[in-house]
Amino acid sequence: xxxxxxxxxxxxxxLSIYFTAxxxxxxxxxxxxxxxxxxxxxMIEIGLPFSDPLADGPIIQDSSTAALKxxxxxEKLFExxxxxxETVSIPLIVMGYFNPMLQYGVEAFCKKCSEIGxxxxxxxxxxxxxxxxxxxxxxxKYGLLNVFLITPQTSEERIRQIDEASxxxxxxxxxxxxxxxxxxxxxxxxxxxxxxxxxNLKNRQIVGFGIKDAETFQQATKTxxxxxxxxxxxxxxxxxxxESISDFIKTIR
Length: 253
What we know:
alpha/beta; nine-stranded parallel beta sheet; 253 residues
């Protein structure tokens, strides 16, 4: 069974943390993953930096720019993660944009992820129909779950299409803005969370964008299975260094 499936079966609200590989320093990647698991995080999204990150706010954009300047590449990330399963057991998801994956070769990318022990992939700019027509068989061949995103503007019909195509969880974007740009959730987001919850989808939802502290984590997980923190975590790393990871997680739960 895929580790994501196992984690989703646990009787708890899940905390997933996103960070940019190769930031703050090129070789921090493995240490960050190990420290996050040690401090009780349930899943980790490893950001593959890209020069044109359309959905990312300034904090994640800046971390991607810095990581690229540090020398992070797809090949370098795979080298760093080659032995990660010797020390880490929680689900690991690679999140990035389709261009680097395409340049590496989709099958080669998926094969390498499988060899390393990656459980899923999030590519926000890989359309559902293109995935199903061209790449679904490859993802399944290597045991990788593809995670799709929905927003408050996604129609019910589209949400149900995504639910049918998904096998794991749905990344429920809290707003149509970029990452890191919200402070707390208003009625619009709350209504959206509740509306999707009443749709009785077969896949659980995990909320991303706008979660930064215990209050927003609790708001996001009132109806969803879990929440993802990215910009707030990277901002904290920038100010406090990777030695401060345990302090950050304590502020969430």
